[in-house]
Write a structure and sequence with these properties.
Blueprint lengths: L3 H30 L5 E6 L4 E5 L5 H7 E5 L2 E2 L2 E6 L2 E6 L8 E6 L15 E6 L9 E4 L9 E5 L11 E5 L6 E5 L5 H7 E4 L4 E6 L4 E6 L8 E6 L15 E7 L8 E6 L13 E2 L4 E3 L5 E6 L5 H5 L2 E5 L8 E6 L6 E7 L11 E6 L15 E6 L9 E9 L7 E4 L6 E3 L15 E10 L9 H6 L1 E5 L4 E12 L2 H16 L6 H4 L4 E12 L4 E7 L15 E7 L1
Parallel strand pairs: 11-17, 20-26, 29-35
Antiparallel strand pairs: 1-2, 2-6, 3-4, 3-7, 5-6, 7-8, 9-12, 10-11, 12-15, 13-16, 14-15, 16-17, 18-19, 18-21, 21-24, 22-25, 23-24, 25-26, 27-28, 27-30, 30-33, 31-34, 32-33, 34-35
């Protein structure tokens, strides 16, 4: 009998061997049919770059895969093909003292579709010499004395720059840059900056290794100048500076700390810095008006924005919050600040208050000198001509019937009782109204002659609720600051004390007390209610000083 299982195994092995041999043959044939594309040489000439391949390259594929850079910048040019050679002709040719990189990307094909297996890179330089290019910053010394001192900075005078701080003590006729090789003039003029800018011309000496920067005008005293060179500055062989460089110096540096003078200006905001608009404050205290300015006059220019943070107002009165400060900066001259309080709400709330304007130590001028002592100026809002009008109270009295009727109106005592005796003021609507007087008491500026009658009549009202009575202000009887005024005010104070209130002795003795009298018609009604005296904030004295806030006084009619 035959062993059929063994026969099957042999048959399977034979099939596998035949399949493997066929696969190897196909791969071998593919390798022979599709050989890889390779670069055999690359040459950079005076005008063209020639690349030779093992097979004729495809033009379209090469245009996509070939790139040439000149000092890192991509070059534009034309590609031509002759057999296995490709020639790249740059638009502007091949230049001296440049670095070139030729790159052909993997996958670039020949005309038959064979591909470049690996990216080809060829570097070439036309530089005749590569050398370190350096520069020194020089300021000539004056004869017989030290012209400058050099102190290296911990931090550079410009971002990503190195250099030193030069304190110039004498005249600066030229600034010198000494290069280690002849400098390329075009790159120097493009890469040199001076801040703040001034007009200058350049002088080249020592075969263009020494460059003099000659200012056309005298430099500004105490000004800090920064000289900067970009690393794009090169020598004539196109060797660049290693990094950006910078130096700074002061012309005639003043090392004396700035001084501060307090001045006073009673003028408009636009004219606050004009000549003769301010006067020096000689004392330690100033009576300040609403629109008046305090000027800080500095002996040197300084950073005004930074200086503001060192100036503030301190209240010297318990319970009085200092107003914020309105600030003007003299950017034109750089040495003055102006301040005045911003009166929020009613400026009368600040009347008589006192503050201290504080200037902290540490104000710094442009030369870096700082003040070492704190300075202060005492201020008070007590200018008599701007003293706000003050309402003290009112008394409603009967001057005809001998009834002894009095009604006290006071801002400090709400809802005091008022009783109308039926014997003198019957509760019948058919009765004729009684004539009474309303005496209003004000304390006003010593500079003011009187109150403004029109503002009084326009801004005074007397009313009653619940139809408890009728009160009609008929006419203004006049103003009085004589002894009669003081007598009536004494009666008001007595009535006020009976109801638990009081008036300070200082106000009672004031020479600027004024009584304003109105004739009022009173008609009683048989009901209870509130009698209200209302004064609007626009009531003013002859100087224009107003109450500044609305006054509301009420009494209970029983």
């Amino acid at each position: 009998m035959c062993n059929f299982s063994g026969f099957k195994i042999i048959k399977k092995l034979t099939s596998l061997m035949l399949f493997g041999a066929l696969l190897w043959a196909l791969v071998s044939c593919g390798t022979i049919m599709l050989p890889p594309l390779e670069v055999t040489s690359c040459k950079v000439g005076t005008a063209t770059i020639v690349v030779e391949f093992t097979l004729p390259p495809d033009l379209a594929s090469l245009e996509d895969g070939l790139s040439v850079t000149e000092d890192g910048s991509k070059m534009e040019g034309k590609i031509t093909i002759s057999g296995n050679k490709a020639e790249f002709t740059p638009v502007y040719g091949i230049k001296d003292n440049y670095d070139y990189v030729v790159r052909i990307e993997a996958g670039t094909e020949d005309v038959q579709g064979h591909s470049l297996m690996d990216t080809f890179v060829y570097e070439y330089s036309t530089r005749s010499e590569k050398a370190s290019f350096t520069v020194d910053f020089l300021v000539p010394e004056s004869l017989g004395q030290e012209g400058f001192t050099e102190n290296p900075l911990e931090t550079a005078p410009g971002e990503n720059m190195i250099g030193g701080e030069i304190h110039v003590l004498d005249e600066v006729s030229t600034i010198q840059l000494e290069f280690s090789a002849a400098v390329d003039k075009k790159s120097l003029e493009a890469g040199l900056t001076i801040t703040p800018a001034f007009e200058y011309f350049l002088e080249y000496e020592k075969n263009d290794c020494l460059v003099r920067i000659v200012p056309k005008k005298q430099l500004e005293i105490n000004q800090r100048y920064v000289v900067q060179l970009k690393n794009s500055v090169m020598d004539t062989k196109r060797n660049p500076l290693e990094k950006d460089l910078g130096w700074s110096f002061f012309y005639k540096l003043d090392e004396i700390p700035p001084e501060i003078v307090f001045k006073h200006a009673a003028t408009s905001e636009d004219a606050v810095f004009e000549e003769n608009s301010s006067t020096e404050i000689t004392g330690e205290k100033l009576e300040l008006g609403l629109e008046e300015w305090i000027i800080l006059d500095f002996s040197e220019k300084l950073d005004l924005d930074a200086a503001v943070s060192l100036v503030f107002l301190e209240s010297l009165d318990i319970g009085v919050i200092s107003p914020s400060l309105e600030i003007i900066k003299d950017y034109k001259n750089g040495n003055r600040l102006a301040f005045r309080p911003q009166w929020s709400g009613n400026s009368g709330d600040f009347w008589g208050s006192n503050w201290l304007l504080v200037v902290k130590a540490g104000l710094e001028d442009e030369a870096g000198n700082k003040t070492t002592e704190e300075k202060g100026l005492f201020l008070s809002y007590t200018l008599e001509s701007q003293r706000p009008l003050e309402f003290l109270g009112a008394l409603l009295v009967d001057t005809e019937k001998q009834s002894g009727f009095k009604a006290c109106f006071s801002p400090q005592l709400p809802f005091v009782s008022m009783e109308l005796d039926p014997q003198f003021y019957p509760n019948r609507s058919e009765e004729l109204p009684s004539k009474v007087e309303l005496h209003l008491f004000f304390n006003l500026s010593e500079k003011a002659d009187a109150l403004n009658d029109f503002s009084l009549m326009e801004n005074l009202s007397l009313s009653a609720s619940n139809d408890c009575c009728e009160l009609t202000v008929k006419k203004l009887l006049g103003q009085d600051s004589s002894q009669e005024c003081k007598n009536q005010f004494q009666e008001f104070m007595a009535e006020l004390e009976l109801n638990g209130g009081n008036v300070s002795s200082e106000i009672a003795a004031s020479t600027s007390l004024v009584m304003v009298s109105f004739q009022v018609e009173l008609l009683n009604r048989d009901s209870r209610g509130l009698v209200t005296l209302e004064l609007e904030e626009a009531i003013a004295d002859s100087l224009g000083n107003m109450l500044g806030k609305k006054i509301l006084c009420q009494v209970n009619k029983i």
